[in-house]
Structure formats: structure tokens, C-alpha cells
Amino acid sequence: MHVADFINSAVDWLLVTFSGFFNGLSAAILKLLMGINSVLFAIPWWGYILLVLVGAWFTTKKAGTAVSLAVLPIFIGMFGLWDRALDTFSVIFTAVIISIFLGIPFGVLMAESKMAEKIIRPLLDTMQTMPSFVYLIPAVMIFSLGKVSAVLATIIYSLPPIVRLTNLGLNQVSAQTEEAALAYGTTRWQLLKEVRLPLAVPSILTGINQTTMMALAMVVIASMIGGGGLGDEVLRAINRIDVGLGFEAGISVVILAIIIDRLTQGLAKRWEPPLDTTS
Amino acid sequence: MTTSDNNGRIAIEVEELWKVFSNGDSGEQGEGSEEEIVAVQDVSLQVKDGEVFVVMGLSGSGKSTLIRCLLRLIEPTSGRIWINNEEVTGLNREELTQFRRERAAMVFQHYGLLPHRNVLDNISFGLKLQGVGREERTRRSLEMVERVGLSGFESYFPAQLSGGMQQRVGIARALANDPPILLMDEPFSGLDPLIRREMQDELLALQEQVNKTIFFVTHDLDEAMRLGDRMAVMKDGGVVQMGTYEEVVENPANEYVAKFVENGR
Questions:
Q1: What is the DSSP string of A98-144?
Q2: ipTM rounded to 2 decimals
Q3: CB pairs under 8 A between A and B
């Protein structure tokens, strides 16, 4: 028994029936991506150094960390991969923003409804374990080669952590805290807004951190369908068996990852309510 | 004893209250074994206005379930509850929310403070839910901070305070709402004996000023004696005896109560 034929005709049917919707979606994503891209390119290189420096200082409060993080982007510039890195960054940024806007509501939905959880959880498992090449093909068929497909493929892979960690953060709120809030007359919405969501913020920020890391992991695969950026350089290096170029592009991805990781982790830590008697 | 007899009006009335937990209620253990636990068994009682009424019993006697039923934090299986002539068991969801905001406030054994809000914002939480404006909220909360002796700690977070101080916040939060009824679920059980005694004294002093109806749950006979005007002794979900401390100690209804109050005479 095969379902392949059925899947093929289903994708064809989707293509024909919803072409208007897909075109609109594609245009919207492209517009967001281009907007982000032009903003990112408008910032001079030293602007990034400064941003990382200030950002790292505010999130970690450690001068050493801040300075060493701020030095890292210079290497990308030295490799001559600055523009490529910004291309990559804009694809990731777009994917992460869309993931956040989709992921947090889905995480909340899962926490609020057992039914939703039963439906969403296996979907998330599938999204994370399905080999990405499998959905690259329909993505390209629907959105054609290019950055929009790259963004979508990245979202499919990077969405699950933010959903899961939002859900986890909401469920971690102690029953005693919730009971007390209910005893004082919170509605379900107020309980969510005043108690559960604020207490879930550190977990949600960790989710954003994880989502960003997952998105970075898709850089090379996304460039196979027109994502551009650093992934392109890696692909070129593979084709030419140019180990040196591969290394430079790879290290640049790592640098992006380290900076984003440290900044978002620091932010997550800062948000946690004080837990010990520090004063 | 703080007997303040306001012509004996009834503030809380519980009539034939039952709470039966079935397995489906409390969790999802094995589905075949439909085990039912009776937590509250045919409890009827009346609490007079301005009275400190103590419910005493060992853990598992159903006293915590009973106090939660009064606010329907736990939904009673059957029976009726009136609080100041309002039938709590007959309220719909919105009425119940409104009721919890205005008619009664609860103090918890584990404080139940919001860890992400500082002392002042914790105290004003109930007022915020009542829809009181920010300025008024702050003014009244600061008043409560002073009343429970936490001046200077307004911007501390719960985790930075000792247990006793956290419970002061809990009490201040309840008083800030200014409800006619305070429900206190073993509020001092987690505190060490010295602090506990101090808090009991302070509660009595506060009660002199505010004169609320207090429904107080404890497993500590000494506490019951110090605070309560009347008490009910619970065992296995049912009330085995009700009366003043003297009545219960001098004339225990059965062996269980006798054993319980043995060291109190």
C-alpha cells in the first residue's frame, strides 16, 4: 500500500486551490524579510559591535563577556563574509519572529486545553523529526525557490521549541500560586495574564533562544532552496572541496550562534524573579 | 478570648456539605479502579459574625478541603454554603469571581504569594482585581504594610523574605481587600514556634482593630485555644464535636476528641 500518490495529488490540489492564499502569504513573508534585510544592512559594521557590546553588558553585567562577544563579529568581516552573514541573519530573524508570533499562542493554547495539547504535541514531534528534505520539496513547489521557501523550512524546524517551552513555563507555575490567585478572584484570562505568563517568561525566553539556535542549524539546508547567505558559501565549499572556505563560513555561523545564544540566555536569566536572600 | 457578640448574626452557614473525590477528579491513575475518597462528610456548621471559628483536625481530616469549599476552590459534591446571606453554592462563574474578590479573602499555609511581584504589588493584588485605581491601591497597600509591620520591605520579593514575613504579606493582602470574612488555612503551621506565637498575638491584635469573621483551620490545639471563640473538631471528613474550647476539653464527645485534647487540659 502506498500513500505517495495520494500525497502527490493532495499537494497538486493545494497548489491549484489555494494558489491565491499561498501567493499572498509568500508576498507577506517576503515583505517582512526585505524590511528586516534593509534595516540590517543600514546599520554599519561598528554599529553591530556597539550593539553586541551594550546588549551583552545589559544582559550579563560582565565586562569580559561583553568585550569578547563584541570582538567576534570582526572575524566575520575579516573573512569577507559580512554581507553573507547579514543575509543569513535576516532569514533567521524573519523565521524567529514568525515562530515567536505563532509559537507563543500555540504554547498557551496547549496549556489551556488538553484537547489542543493532544493535537499539537504529535505535530511538533513530526516537525522536529521529519527529515527536512521531505518538506523542502513541497515548500519549493508551493513557494518556488528562494528566500520565502528558506524562511518557511526554517520555521518548520525552529517552531517546536518555542511552543514547547511556552507550554512548559505555563505548566510549571505552582498549583499553590494559581490557587491563591483564583481565591482572590482572577478570571481565567487574568490568571494567564497576571500570573502564569509573567512567571513563564524565563522559560519563554529560553524557548526563543532554542528556536534561534534551531534556525541557525537550518542555514545550510535553507541555502539549498535559495536561502542565500553563509549557507551558500558552505555549499560552494562543498562543491569545490574547499575546506578553508567551508571553515570560514562555518566559523561565521558559529559566531552568530554564540552571540545570539549568549544575549538571549542572559536576557532569560535577568527576567527570573529573585530566588534567594541576596539583600 | 475575643468575644465580640454582634447580636449573633450568622456569617457563614454550611449545610450538609459533602466532598467526594473520585479518581477521575484528582488525577489519572488506573481507570478500572474507581476509588472514591470522602474528604468532607456531611458537615453542617454556623459561624457567627465577628467570631473566630477554628476548625481543628489532623492532616487528612478534611479541614483543608472544607475551607476550600467555602470559596469553591474545590467544588463541593453536595450541600449548601451561605456566606453573609449569599448562597455561594448557587453562584455562577462570574458571580463567584466577584464573590471571591469582595466577600472573603484567604490566607494560605504556603503563603501563595506571587513570586514575580514585590511585597507592595502582592498586597495590592486583590485590590487590582477589584478594579481599584493605582493611587488608591498604593495608598491602601502601604497602610497594610505598616499595619503588619513590614515597613521598609515594600520592594522586596517574596523569596527574599523569611516565612513569617511572607505570611505577613499574605495577611496584609487579605486585609487590604477589606472583606467581611477571612479564611485562614493553617497560616502559621509552617513557621517555627516562637514566630508562630508572635504571629498569633499579632493576629489577635489585628482582629481587635478590624473585627472580621475568621474561619481558621489548624492542627494545633494550642493555637485553637489561643485564637478561637469556638471550635469544631474534624475526623475523617466529619465534625465530631463543636463548641467552645472549654466545652470540648471538659467534655469530649468521644475517645478520639479526648485523646486529641488530652495534653491541652
A1: HHHHHHHHHHHHHHH-HHHHHHHHHHHHHHHHS-HHHHHHHHHHHH-
A2: 0.87
A3: 74
